[in-house]
Write a sequence for this structure.
């Protein structure tokens, strides 16, 4: 059964939602039959690739939403508390606001290598905990190598326009199915969860969608009528 996740690295609830989903998956009996597909989403594509003056996350949110710095700090305190409950260590004082298009290009490439989940995890950790600048090529190369990619592969992701195109395709697909915010989880193209819902919500949706999928999927394996035959262990007489 396919589960798709539209996500942006700069979204604090996407990392929390990822962890809640994983906690549910660990309790789910059918987890070996799940195919996970990460999808790109850009919350703020107008963010500069290079800032003349670095902007901290509190200033960034205050400026973007037209609220006071004090309000922004209060909102982020709530996010940090949620992250802590999910077992995540958000270090927002170190966070470097960045345009995520380059990070998403690397994620798109990583899909071809079966490494997208590992890359997503390492991107989130680099951004929210380690304070890495994910608009910096050197940082992305380091994350890619730590995730199992080569320097050459990350460089290809950053320079080949195919991967920018694939980011855009994911965003267009999100619009087509009505995604207006992330994280957005789609189960078997029938059920969806928007936001960092509790683990119990993910587990309920996993069970419901999976049971329906089992009812409709073709039977695997062959119905065999057996008779005398030979195998590597010898022949039946």
């Amino acid at each position: 059964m396919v589960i798709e996740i539209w996500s942006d690295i700069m979204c604090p609830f996407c990392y929390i939602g990822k962890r809640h989903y994983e906690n549910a998956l660990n309790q789910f009996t059918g987890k070996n039959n799940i195919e996970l597909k990460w999808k790109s989403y850009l919350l703020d594509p107008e963010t500069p690739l290079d800032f003349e003056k670095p902007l901290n996350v509190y200033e960034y949110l205050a400026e973007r939403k037209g609220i006071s710095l004090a309000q922004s700090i209060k909102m982020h305190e709530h996010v940090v508390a949620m992250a802590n409950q999910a077992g995540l260590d958000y270090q927002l004082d170190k966070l470097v606001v960045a345009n995520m298009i380059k990070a998403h290009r690397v994620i798109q490439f990583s899909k071809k290598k079966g490494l997208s989940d590992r890359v997503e995890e390492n991107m989130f950790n680099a951004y929210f905990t380690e304070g890495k600048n994910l608009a910096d090529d050197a940082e992305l190369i380091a994350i890619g190598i730590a995730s199992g990619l080569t320097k050459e592969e990350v460089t290809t992701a950053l320079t080949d326009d195919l991967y920018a195109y694939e980011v855009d395709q994911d965003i267009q697909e999100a619009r087509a199915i009505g995604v207006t915010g992330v994280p957005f989880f789609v189960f078997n193209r029938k059920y969806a969860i928007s936001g960092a819902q509790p683990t119990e919500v993910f587990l309920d949706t996993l069970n419901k969608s999976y049971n329906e999928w089992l009812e409709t999927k073709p039977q695997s394996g062959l119905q065999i009528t057996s008779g005398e035959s030979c195998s590597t262990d010898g022949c039946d007489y």
The chain has one domain: 2-216. The mean pLDDT is 92. The radius of gyration is 21 Å.
